[in-house]
């Protein structure tokens, strides 16, 4: 009984019990019982091997087996090869450089590396390469170097791989292996050559000095590669008719490293690369792997133009292969090399476009990305037609990216504006609700800039929106254009003398806006634009019929009780205009000015802007544009001289103009003069416009021009003043002072400021949040840092209770 109790369970029995377990709980119970038995028993050396096998199997199942590390060390110290084999295997699985018992195995490894049996030395080298730490690598680096010089090819191969692992841990000791690695290139044994090439590649990647040293060995590598492709059949190295493809691939990778940005080294390998590319068997997959490495090597070095064309043609042949993996690799590689030889890739454009019809989704995506890289000014019409066809039939996962990228390409390479407008509208129609907001913004930008095609665009958009109301990006754009250019719908339109569109009745146009405003399919952003469009349409009707105006008034007030704050605010303010400010409604709702242009390349399209940005541009603050148009040039110049750190700007206030706010942003440029002849005068009661008085004198010599006091009609009695002084070369201190000239107490006072992204703004705490009547004041300091010395505008907004002054 004692003998049976001390005998550990055999591995075969443990496997049988675990397989018989029907649940995970039963399996854990078997493991727990066996682990406890292994921990508590003292096993004689004859049983350690079986115990180690049990522990390794437990470790492979994912259960903790660290308590068996000492059993593995006992087997490593055994003189028997069978014990050492299991012990070293357990050490490689159960030990790492963080384990405390890791240092105990160092001495055993060192002793075994000097053993007379090559297989025991091989076990020690394999273990060292697997679990070596920096300390262990330094201790045994000399033994590894000696084994690299051994007469045994089997040990030289193992030692070279172990040296590769050591220099990854400690690059400082790389120099001791350079002579050994160079001598290994003269080996006849392919296994040793393979490890030598791997070792040299790692050295070149870690050290530029070593890279320059090994560039002198390019002729040796070329000779080895030439012998491989020119040698006859060898049963030991032949793989499907190719001589040692593994060694060929590694040599090509090393040549790519050595020839990168080095014309002399590249020149030495041009001929052999062409020879390998033309002599490699392409009927088997092993040949494709070598050709793939040939392509990467040619594109990675300073190769000749003819070689680059040859590499692209190889990838073109890959595209015709029936294997989906090879086609995917070809498309991915062409995407990487398209900038290196654009014209050569263009020759395979037809084959690439055909890949768009592939059933594999990954191939479709790679082909789509490559097609956009191939678009230029000469093929934009044909490629746009192909991509629109693909967009109409592709899955939903492709539509958003395809739509945005094609919009960018159309903006960059459009042959004319009419074609650009048509393409964007077709894009939105084909992409449907998958179109991103940046495409809508691009369409708004384009239509606002092209006055000759505004009537044509609004007719087209009315048609598209009427045909399919579910496409919300198209409906949103249609509502915006109807609000701005809806007057063009009430007359016939002839586009470029080719197409004629009949006039639409006001009832039809108003019906579409009503559907957009009331439909449950409409997004919130669409409703925001629709209610503004309804309001603006009231000034664009051909005849101001009372029945139509009543319908518009009803639609404008429909969402006065909406739970959506932005929509409710618009409806309330528009209703107030109808009730109390009918005399200025036409001036308020004038068409928006042309939006500021974006980067010509189209690559700067904002990814997150879009419907929300368009909606905010048509926000309830419809008087902002009019107020900004009447802004005083002197105030703008004062702000510019305050932020600009050019000394010449302090000598006087130069003449300057203030630009209109961008329709796609909420730029706050609402400083206006109190001119009774301008449109801004009647707007004061509704939107709280600002008046500008005479500028305050500057008392200090270092002070910058001060902002004239700003009187608010929105917050009665509130006046703001701004003064600045330069403290450092790039810093300006701004002192903002708010004065209550009225007879009521102002509470919860808050001041906000904004500067462009190129500047840095630091706001200090205000002196208080309450402004007593009749002269009570609050001051606040702000520090503006202008590292680039550019001219900029600063925006201020003051709040008291629920009233705001911009």
From TrEMBL:
Compartment(s): Cytoplasmic vesicle membrane; Endomembrane system; Golgi apparatus
Pfam families listed in its UniProt record: Adaptin_N (PF01602), Alpha_adaptinC2 (PF02883)
Domain of life: Eukaryota
Gene Ontology annotations of biological process type: intracellular protein transport; vesicle-mediated transport
Keywords, ordered alphabetically: Cytoplasmic vesicle, Golgi apparatus, Membrane, Protein transport, Transport
GO cellular component, one term: AP-1 adaptor complex
InterPro entries named among the record's database cross-references: Adaptor_Complx_Large_Subunit, AP1_complex_gsu, ARM-like, ARM-type_fold, Clathrin/coatomer_adapt-like_N, Clathrin_a/b/g-adaptin_app_Ig, Clathrin_app_Ig-like_sf, GAE_dom
Membrane topology: Peripheral membrane protein
Residue ranges occupied by any GAE domain in the UniProt entry: 705-806
Keyword Membrane found: yes
PANTHER family: ADAPTIN, ALPHA/GAMMA/EPSILON
Family: Belongs to the adaptor complexes large subunit family.
Protein name, entry field: AP-1 complex subunit gamma
Lineage start: Eukaryota, Metazoa, Spiralia, Lophotrochozoa, Platyhelminthes
């Amino acid at each position: 009984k004692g003998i049976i109790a001390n005998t550990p369970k055999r591995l075969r029995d443990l496997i049988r019990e675990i397989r018989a377990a029907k649940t995970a709980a039963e399996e854990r119970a078997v493991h727990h019982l066996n682990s406890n038995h292994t921990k508590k028993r003292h096993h004689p050396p004859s049983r350690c091997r079986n115990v180690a096998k049990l522990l390794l199997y437990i470790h492979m199942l994912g259960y903790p087996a660290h308590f068996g590390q000492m059993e593995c060390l006992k087997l490593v110290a055994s003189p028997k090869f069978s014990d050492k084999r299991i012990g070293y295997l357990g050490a490689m699985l159960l030990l790492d450089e963080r384990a405390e018992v890791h240092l105990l195995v160092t001495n055993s490894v060192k002793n075994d590396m000097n053993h007379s049996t090559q297989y025991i030395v091989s076990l020690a080298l394999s273990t060292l390469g697997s679990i070596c730490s920096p300390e262990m690598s330094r201790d045994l680096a000399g033994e590894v170097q000696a084994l690299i010089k051994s007469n045994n090819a089997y040990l030289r191969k193992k030692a070279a791989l172990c040296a590769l692992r050591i220099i990854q841990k400690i690059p400082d000791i790389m120099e001791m292996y350079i002579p050994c690695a160079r001598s290994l290139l003269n080996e006849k044994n392919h296994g040793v050559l393979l490890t030598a090439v791997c070792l040299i590649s790692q050295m070149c990647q870690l050290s530029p000095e070593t890279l320059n040293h090994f560039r002198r060995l390019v002729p040796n590598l070329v000779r080895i590669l030439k012998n491989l492709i020119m040698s006859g059949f060898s049963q030991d190295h032949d793989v499907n008719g190719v001589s040692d493809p593994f060694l060929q691939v590694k040599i090509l990778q090393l040549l790519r490293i050595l020839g990168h940005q080095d014309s002399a080294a590249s020149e030495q390998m041009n001929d052999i690369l062409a020879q390998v590319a033309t002599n490699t068997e392409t009927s088997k997959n092993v040949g494709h792997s070598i050709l793939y490495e040939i392509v990467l090597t040619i594109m990675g070095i300073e190769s000749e133009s003819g070689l680059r064309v040859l590499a692209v043609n190889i990838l073109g042949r890959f595209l015709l292969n029936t294997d989906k993996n090879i086609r995917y690799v070809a498309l991915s590689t062409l995407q990487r090399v398209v900038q290196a030889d654009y014209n050569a890739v263009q020759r395979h454009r037809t084959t690439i476009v055909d890949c768009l019809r592939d059933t594999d989704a990954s191939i479709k995506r790679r082909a789509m990305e490559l097609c956009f890289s191939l678009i230029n000014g000469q093929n934009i019409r044909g490629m746009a037609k192909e991509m629109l066809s693909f967009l109409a039939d592709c899955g939903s996962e492709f539509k958003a990216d395809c739509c945005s990228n094609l919009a960018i390409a159309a903006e960059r390479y459009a042959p004319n504006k009419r074609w650009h407008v048509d393409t964007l509208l077709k894009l939105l129609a084909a992409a449907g609700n998958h179109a991103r907001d940046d495409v809508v913004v691009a369409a708004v930008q384009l239509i606002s800039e092209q006055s000759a095609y505004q009537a044509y665009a609004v007719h087209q958009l009315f048609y598209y929106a009427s045909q399919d109301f579910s496409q919300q990006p198209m409906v949103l754009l249609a509502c915006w254009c109807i609000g701005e250019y809806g007057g063009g719908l009430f007359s016939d339109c002839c586009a470029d003398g080719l197409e004629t569109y009949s006039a639409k009745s006001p009832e039809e146009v108003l019906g579409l806006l009503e559907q957009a405003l009331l439909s449950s399919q409409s997004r919130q952003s669409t409703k925001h634009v629709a209610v503004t469009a309804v309001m603006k349409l009231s000034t664009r009707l051909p005849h101001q019929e009372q029945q139509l105006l009543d319908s518009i008034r009803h639609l404008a007030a429909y969402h006065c009780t909406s739970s959506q704050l932005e929509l409710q605010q618009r409806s309330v303010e528009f209703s107030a205009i109808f009730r109390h400010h009918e005399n200025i409604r036409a001036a308020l709702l004038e068409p928006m000015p042309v939006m500021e242009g974006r980067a010509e390349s189209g690559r700067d399209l904002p990814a997150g802007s879009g419907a929300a940005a368009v909606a905010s541009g048509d926000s309830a603050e419809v008087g902002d544009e009019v107020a900004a148009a009447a802004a005083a040039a002197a105030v703008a110049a004062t702000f510019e001289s305050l932020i600009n750190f050019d000394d010449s700007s302090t000598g006087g206030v130069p003449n300057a103009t203030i630009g209109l706010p961008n329709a796609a942003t909420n730029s706050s440029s609402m400083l206006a003069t109190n001119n009774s002849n301008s449109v801004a005068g009647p707007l004061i009661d509704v939107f709280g416009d600002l008046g500008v008085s005479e500028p305050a004198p500057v008392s200090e010599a270092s002070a910058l021009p001060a902002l004239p006091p700003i009187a608010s009609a929105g917050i009665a009695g509130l006046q703001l003043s701004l003064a600045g002084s330069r403290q450092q070369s790039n810093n300006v201190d701004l002192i903002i002072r708010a004065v209550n000239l009225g007879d009521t107490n102002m509470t919860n006072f808050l001041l906000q400021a904004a500067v462009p992204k190129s500047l840095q703004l630091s706001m200090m705490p205000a002196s208080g949040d309450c402004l007593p009547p009749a002269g009570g004041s609050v001051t606040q300091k702000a520090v503006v840092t202008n590292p680039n010395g550019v001219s900029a505008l600063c925006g201020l907004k003051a709040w008291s209770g629920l009233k705001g002054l911009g």
